[in-house]
Amino acid sequence: GIYGPPGAEYTDNLFRFALLSLAAAEAPLVLEIDGSTYGQDVLFICNDWQTGILPVYLLYKYKLHNTYMNARSWMVIHNIAYQGKYCKERFPVDSYLGLKPKPAGDDLQGEDMHLGPDCINLLAGGIRTADRVLTVSPNYANEIRSPEGGN
């Protein structure tokens, strides 16, 4: 499958989805369509943890360097059970993702029952840094805000 073999995930998923997000961010700047690039005034629609790092890159990589100043990002949650959690010690925010540990690392901070606080959470990063957070339905929005959470 795209995420890994049944019951597991590929060991390079963080790299693959960070690269996908960077490619999506670069595309409007460099790809020529009908003789010109799309430009910086764009809306990035990010779906689930796989693109959760795109709003983080938008804020801490691009806007920090005066690129995409008018761009916006929406984070769409389809299934909050999958959050894209990775060990920070194994995948440092600075050397692995190219982001400064402060403040980007704070927005990517997560916690996990197996990793403890040594956790990067891509979905949490997207939720914290996106301009708007949406769910697939009003019912799902209510479900994930309930004490039981959502799946």
Structure description:
The protein is α/β, with parallel strands linked by helices and 151 residues long. 35% of the residues lie in helices and 21% in strands. It has helices at residues 13-30, 53-62, 93-97, 104-108, 122-129, 138-144, and strands spanning 32-33, 36-37, 43-47, 72-77, 85-87, 109-112, 116-121, 132-135. The strands form 3 sheets. Strands 3-4-8 form a 3-stranded parallel beta sheet. The radius of gyration is 16 Å and the shape is globular. It starts with 12 loop residues before the first helix and ends in a 7-residue tail after the last helix. The mean pLDDT is 94.
Give the secondary structure arrangement, pairings included.
Blueprint: H1 13-30, E1 32-33, E2 36-37, E3 43-47, H2 53-62, E4 72-77, E5 85-87, H3 93-97, H4 104-108, E6 109-112, E7 116-121, H5 122-129, E8 132-135, H6 138-144
Parallel strand pairs: 3-4, 4-8
Antiparallel strand pairs: 1-2, 5-7, 6-7
Quick summary:
This protein has 151 residues and is of the alpha/beta class. Helix content is 35%, strand content 21%. The longest helix has 18 residues.
Please work out how many helical segments DSSP would assign.
Answer: 6
Distance between the termini: 20 Å
Structural class: alpha/beta
Helix and strand pattern: HEEEHEEHHEEHEH
Total beta-strand segments: 8
**pLDDT averaged residue by residue:** 94
Strand order of the largest sheet: 3-4-8
Helix content: 25-40%
Low-pLDDT runs: none
Main sheet record: 3 strands, parallel
C-alpha Rg (nearest Å): 16 Å
Indicate the overall shape: globular
Q: Report the sheet-strand fraction.
A: 15-25%
